[in-house]
Amino acid sequence: MNIRLDGKVALVTGGSGGIGQAIARSLAASGASVAVNYIGNRASADATVSGITDEGGKAIALEADIADMTAVQAMFAQLDATLGAPDILINCAGIDGHGALSWDIDPAAWRRVIEVNLFGSFYCSRQALQRMVPRKSGVILNISSVHETIAWTGYSAYTSSKAALSMLTKTMAQEAAPFGIRVLAVAPGAIQTDINKSVWSDPEQMRDLAEKIPLGRMGQVQEIAGLITFLVSDGGSYVTGTTVFADGGMTDYPDFSHGG
Ligand code: BGC
After folding, report:
1. Which of 89, 191, 203, 253 is the most exposed place for a label (fewest CB within 10 A)?
2. Quick check: pTM over 0.90?
3. How far, in Å, from the CA of 70 to the mean position of ligand 1?
4. Spatial separation of the C-alpha atoms in residues 230 and 224, rounded to whole Å
């Protein structure tokens, strides 16, 4: 299937690295003009942009801490003035936070995870919807996680943020559907990026992780980016208010392949 997004404007938060960078590249390869949001790492954002423009695509970098509502507002104003109002928003920026039991963790660290993963997605979606509703068109895709349903010791803020993001997705989808706008989520499993480098660079931890995945391997960023490009295109026109899992079967309870 030839997926085309010509004439569409897309904003990808956290687009300077990991899954977000692959999404930005994939959307641009399908013809969308892409705004690559980043925080701090200008060099990575520039590399993403030049990777796109070198291949004949259109992209710009926009800096904003998505957890800061005023910064998000300013970013959308910049987007309006450059590429134009977004047709596609990918809420990808997110952090795991550092592992600590819920009774030990510093509440400020806990709060930061919720502010980036949940409030950040809310602030960006709010700005996007204010532009999409009057135009009666648009797609918002939230990057959730298998941890919207799988508990994860040491990561209570992360799991809570992703579970909440799932209901935010469903509720915004219900609100926006009468305006022809789709809101959905994709829940990746263990995708090999910097976020989980400590796991895949340690053979012992990697063995343990592989046992949690029926397909027996981590996913690659392109395996998520391709799916997302399809879902935000007309190919996904009937998908809204739900989470699509792309996890190599992680949520298929691999422990039940024996016993029970
Ligand atoms: C986390 C990764 C983790 C994966 C599987 C993701 O949501 O960001 O760090 O490897 O879930 O547990």
Report:
1. 203
2. yes
3. 29
4. 10
Question: Phi, psi (5° rounding) for residue 243?
Answer: -110, 130
For ligand 1, the distance from its centroid to the CA atom of residue 246, given in whole angstroms, is 12
Q: What is the DSSP letter of 119?
A: I
DSSP string, 32-43: -EEEEEESS-HH
Q: pLDDT tens-digit profile of 2-20?
A: 899 999 999 999 999 999 9
Digit-coded pLDDT (tens) for 22-80? 999 999 999 999 999 999 999 999 999 999 999 999 999 999 999 999 999 999 999 99
Angle at 183 between CA 182 and CA 189, to 5 degrees: 130
Nearest-atom number in ligand 1 for the CA of 250 is 5
> Which domains can be identified in the chain, with CATH numbers?
9-250 (3.40.50.720)
**How many Å apart are CA 145 and CA 82, to the nearest integer?**
32
Distance CA(136)–CA(118), nearest Å, equals 25
